[in-house]
Structure formats: structure tokens, C-alpha cells
Amino acid sequence: MGKFGAALVFAVLFPYIVTLAWTGTVEGTGVRTEAGGDRRILLDEGNVKAYMSMEEFLPGALAAQIPADFGEEALKAQAIIARTYICGRMGEEKEISQSELDMDYLDGKELAALWGEQAAENYRRLREAAEETRGQVITYEGELIEPLFHRASAGRTREGGDGYPYLTAADCPGDLEADGSLQAVTMTKEELAEKIRTIPGAGEVAAEGLPGDIQILAADETGYVKEIQIGTGSCTGEEVQRALGLASPCFSVEEYGDGLRVVTRGIGHGYGLSQYTASLLSGEGRTAEEILQFFYKNIVLISV
């Protein structure tokens, strides 16, 4: 059988692989109950509603979060992060629906389309990352953390401040080599003015006043924009990032010919774990726990 055929078989068999642990059906609802599972997810975003244990859910969730070819210990660290997030959203309950969780999950057909001939191997790597960290979550002073992560920083991750005391600024010079870490988006002044008008709190701005009517009021030492003045109003760097479709809130706006160029560094918000540096650390022999401690300070891993 060729590799493409193997991927096709994987896509067909995947639903049966993950339902082997299910027993019983709730009449009239199409909901299956999962034997032996403690914490579970109700998959409610498709035509058939079904329960899946949290641990079985994790590989498909990881597939939507991190490249499967990243270092093994980085994948384990991401599995612990994903599990921490899920348990945090569950609270005292033992189950939650996928729609409430607001967490992407890729099924067999989606994984085959994403990975092609590498589908079976990539799924194996993610499944092992979940299995080898089974039950592990991250706590700070006895409470589950908000496990923020991103693909690559702008060279240094961001301090969390009072709201997130466990988020530390970690040097990540290797992130500058990540694919897509440095991007430049060009647009006309009219295009930028139109997009700015969609930002709540941004002041009125005319195309002819750009880029002069845009002033960065506050940024951290790495260059992530905290507050930016646009016309007579102000907004956050993240609001501008979303409005312009930028890779990162670490950006600058400059004249470029008759138009403008927005230059970004990093991929994502820059808080918490950098997946790219986590993969580099994995290649250096760091364990998943050591990787997590590199990005989150004063944390303790426990089992749930």
C-alpha cells in the first residue's frame, strides 16, 4: 500500500479508533457514553453528538494547535497546556461541551487532508505526547493557570503583570528564525484608514493623515504595542492586530512608496510558551517540565 493509500485508510479508520472506548447510546440523541472516562468532552459541533474522554480528545486538539513535527518534549508541553486549559474551563464539573470549550478539534478526515501521507505518523506523535503526560496540569499557588501560548515571540516573551504573575519574560532569540516570524504587509493609505475605522475606540482618521496620525503610546522592551493613538482615540496593539489581520501585535507602520507598510515580528500575542523555542529546547534535551518552567515561573505540575 502506498503512503497516500495509508493516509486514506487512516482517515477512514480514525473515527473507529477513537470510538473503541465508547459503549452504549442514549436513545434518540445519538450521544454515546464513554466507559471508564473521568473527564470528558461532548463533541457537539457536528451532526452526531458524542462523548470522548479528555485524554482521547487531546491528540485531535493538539493537531489544531502545534505542528506535529516539533520536538517531542515540546509536544508534551503543549499537551499539558491543552489539558490545563480544558480542566480550567471545566471547573468542578467532569465534562464540558466542545462549543463551551471553544477549542478546535480535528477529526480523521481533517487530519488526512492536513497531513496527507504523514497523517498516521503525526497522529502517533501527538497521541504519545498526550499519553506520556496523562493527567498532568500546571498550577500556580494551588490553582490552575491560564496557560497562554503562541507560535513564536519577537525574540522575547512578555511579562504577565499582576493578572498573570506566572508569565515571565523569557529570551527566545531563535524565534526570529521561525517561518513567518518577520512579515511585511503593504496597503494603500485608504485601505488602512478603512480598516482602522472598524476598531472601537479608534479616532477618526483620514487617509491623507497617515501614518502621521498613528502614534505608539506604549510598548514593551521587545516592541509589543500596548497602546496606540489613532487620531483622537486610542486602542490596544491586539485590536490593531485583529483589524489589520497581522501576525503579531509587535508592529510598526511606515511610509512605503505611495502607500504604507506594516512590519510585524513574531507570530501570536507573545505571552506564555513560545512553541518554536519550546521545540528548540526539546532538541537540546530539555524535558517537557523544564520547558514549561522556562516560560512560566513558580509553577507546579500536578495530576488530576
Describe the structure.
With 304 residues, this protein is an alpha+beta fold. It has helices at residues 3-19, 54-63, 72-90, 98-101, 108-115, 119-131, 189-196, 237-244, 275-283, 288-295, and strands at 22-26, 31-34, 40-43, 50-53, 95-97, 136-140, 143-144, 149-150, 182-187, 214-219, 225-230, 233-236, 251-256, 259-265, 273-274, 300-303. It has a 3-stranded mixed beta sheet. Strands 7-6-16 form a 3-stranded antiparallel beta sheet. A hairpin with a 5-residue loop joins strand 10 and strand 11 (225-230). The protein is globular and about 60 Å long.
Blueprint (SSEs and pairs):
Layout: H1 3-19, E1 22-26, E2 31-34, E3 40-43, E4 50-53, H2 54-63, H3 72-90, E5 95-97, H4 98-101, H5 108-115, H6 119-131, E6 136-140, E7 143-144, E8 149-150, E9 182-187, H7 189-196, E10 214-219, E11 225-230, E12 233-236, H8 237-244, E13 251-256, E14 259-265, E15 273-274, H9 275-283, H10 288-295, E16 300-303
Parallel strand pairs: 3-5, 8-15
Antiparallel strand pairs: 1-2, 3-4, 6-7, 6-16, 9-14, 10-11, 11-12, 13-14
Helix pairs in contact: 1-5, 2-3, 2-6, 3-6, 3-9, 3-10, 5-6
